[in-house]
């Protein structure tokens, strides 16, 4: 098995650390000047070698974000992929495609209500790969990932500055620690399910307020204030606003059932404790 990660970055790095130490060859395609010395099975190369790498890869892990035309990997390289040895494709999508469900639970069969431009182009990317893989008889796994946090991806709190905690009643976000996300995606790659959709999120959706207050408690920060969302939203970018328009709780029952999975960090409380020194 040779897994090519297109859009190699934070998530793919952790996935490769798991699967490549099992003897699988991992090739990361990146625009950044990166090297990796942790395993002989991991190779990082520049974008100029994409067509070459596609000729001998067997699995694709696509983490590249979409643009206005959908998935840039699909739009630029679908011909090369259809004429390669690739048998299986894992597309990393977002739980944002579910859009707003007024705080209710969503699973892999829930309606896709994404209304923002960013959610719509993510959904467009999913549909591109679904149609392509069906036409070319390739295994496809769509992985809808909740907000990822972990080392180098956690809010920094400074005791010297006031921390603003945003309050929006009954508004939920779903999250997942990078170690659990990487373990689950590794299982999806290795067990090679065909034409499945997976939600990757932890057990406990929560408000942004609860998440921040937990971090504040662990860091023993005294200088903080609660502000209303109505006040806070005045300074938000369009991309940030869409996270607050989508209110839902993402169910992980499917991955727990299929993989008999037990989370390392079942909730943000467990994850924040693990990251205490980085907050």
Q: How much helicity do the residues have?
A: 25-40%
Element-level helix/strand string: EHEEHEHEEHEEEEHEHEHHEHH
Low-confidence residue ranges:
none
Number of helices in the DSSP assignment: 10
The quaternary organization reads as: single chain
- Beta fraction: 15-25%
Sheet with most strands: strand arrangement: 3-2-1-4-5-7-11
* Overall form: globular
Cα-to-Cα separation, first versus last residue: 38 Å
Sheet having the most strands = 7 strands, parallel
Number of distinct beta strands: 13
Secondary-structure-derived class: alpha/beta
Blueprint (SSEs and pairs):
Elements: E1 2-6, H1 10-19, E2 25-29, E3 42-45, H2 50-56, E4 59-62, H3 72-82, E5 88-94, E6 105-106, H4 117-136, E7 139-145, E8 147-149, E9 163-167, E10 175-177, H5 178-191, E11 196-200, H6 208-219, E12 224-228, H7 229-232, H8 238-245, E13 249-250, H9 253-259, H10 268-274
Parallel strand pairs: 1-2, 1-4, 2-3, 4-5, 5-7, 6-13, 7-11, 8-10, 9-12
Helix pairs in contact: 1-5, 6-10
